Amino acid sequence: MKIATRMSSIAPSLTLAISAQAKAMKAKGIDVISFSAGEPDFDTPIHIKEAAKLALDTGKTKYGPSAGEPKLREAIALKLRTHNNLNYQAENVIVTNGGKYSLFNLMLALIETGDEVIIPVPYWLSYPEMVKIAGGTPVCVTTQASNGYKITAKELEKAITNNTKLLILNSPSNPTGSVYHPDELQALAKVIIEKDILVVADEIYEYILYDNAQHLSIGSLSPEIFQRSIVSNGFAKSYSMTGWRIGYLAGNVELIKAMTKIQGHSTSNVCTFAQYGAMAALESSQDCVKEMLEAFKERRKIMLEGITSISNISCAKPEGAFYLFVDISKTGLKSIEFCEKLLQDQQVAAIPGKAFGADDCVRFSYATDNQSIIRGMERLESFINSL
Ligand code: GLU
Fold first, then answer.
1. % the chain with pLDDT above 90
2. In this model, does residue 121 exceed pLDDT 90?
3. Which fold would CATH assign to domain 62-283?
4. Side-chain-side CA neighbours of residue 239 (13 Å)
5. Among 18, 23, 39, 365, which is best to mutate for testing ligand 1, by the most ligand atoms less than 8 A from CB?
6. Confidence class of residue 19 from pLDDT cuts 50, 70 and 90?
7. Which CATH class is domain 5-44+287-386?
């Protein structure tokens, strides 16, 4: 069987593969400690599950509109207006099969052969692959650890050519946990407007913030940047709904119409009764989000103390998300070998930085319980000492 040529340059998703491998090892009774998954370990809050159950019991089991349940689109638009200061209406919103599919669909709707998409490195590993599948060219721009791995206005300006169509901005960031500050966003917005390109803000970790970090949507800065902005988000991380597969994207109406056509020929609507759970998530108390954040705060502290106390590895203190991006360059190993050995010798799973475009780093997710983090850090220390 001859597989399409376009697939020859597409890498598999390592985050999903390693997380699945760790889960399979656990199922076999192996005492694996997994820092691989970018997946909160909490159950979905009960009121969200009850709303989906009620929808299931009352017959919300049929096809729905491809762009999403009208009430959910309205609730999302209201959230974007009130929480993010983005002036969207329901017609500006599409509900998608996870945040991931919102971005994939966006690339298909927007990117043509020859279009360049600027992606700051380290990046979430699916961005370049999505661009390539759509026929575009990812332009990966290395950022500096000393600047929190955030792209600067200068670096952006230098990377822009006549073919540049889009910048992908992810804040809080996966894998680094960095958060863009208002002045940094202002400077980037200035370049985006001057060079007349588009920006998609992936804001899936928007509520997972520490210390005094604030989340700001770049599109809220001015009418000029709003016109050039698209925002992608979802329910997976904030409400611990990873398996529900409900994301969304907001942008101008023509874009949403184009994406709805693609969705009409690919996924159709997101699971109807699941969308009722998402409505409950938005319309009910947000205490569950705060409770999960409290747990993440404690976990971040424990893992940071652990990593800092181990010689030859180091990481910055991230302001958001639930990852530590650890520099392993002093160990003499590159990231894939490091992760393979760590899993083999100590049964600790983590994701090689190579998958995110940074081979001297490894991503540790602290979306797991305190005890596992403490035990995992002890094993990591033994591993580093054995090298
Ligand atoms: N975004 C999460 C991660 O980076 C989930 C896995 C994935 O979809 O890549 O681990």
1. 95
2. yes
3. Aspartate Aminotransferase; domain 2 (3.40.640)
4. 27
5. 39
6. confident
7. alpha beta
Distance 16 CA to ligand 1 centre (A): 6
**SS3 of residue 113 by DSSP:** coil
Q: Return d(Cα 285, Cα 287) in angstroms, integer.
A: 5
The whole-angstrom separation of Cα 250 and Cα 229 is 9
- Please state the separation of Cα 226 from the chain's center in Å: 21
CB hemisphere CA count around 120 (13 angstroms): 30
Residue recorded with tokens 């699971």: 271
The residue ranges of every structural domain in the chain are 5-44+287-386, 62-283
Name the residue with tokens 């192996």: 30
Ligand 1 atom having least distance to the Cα of 100? 8
CB neighbours (10 Å) of residue 301? 15
How many percent of the chain have pLDDT more than 70?
100
Q: Please report which confidence band the pLDDT of residue 302 belongs to, taking 50, 70 and 90 as the band edges.
A: very high
CB atoms within 10 A of CB 254: 9
Q: Which residues contact 229 (CB under 8 A, 6 or more apart)?
A: 86, 198, 199, 200, 201, 217, 218, 219, 251
- 100 CA to centre of ligand 1 in angstroms: 9
Question: If you take atom 9 of ligand 1, which residue's CA is the nearest one?
Answer: 15
95 Cβ contact partners less than 8 Å away, ≥ 6 residues apart: 67, 68, 69, 72, 73, 76, 246, 247, 248, 269, 270, 275, 278
Cβ atoms of 155 and 147 closer than 8 Å: no
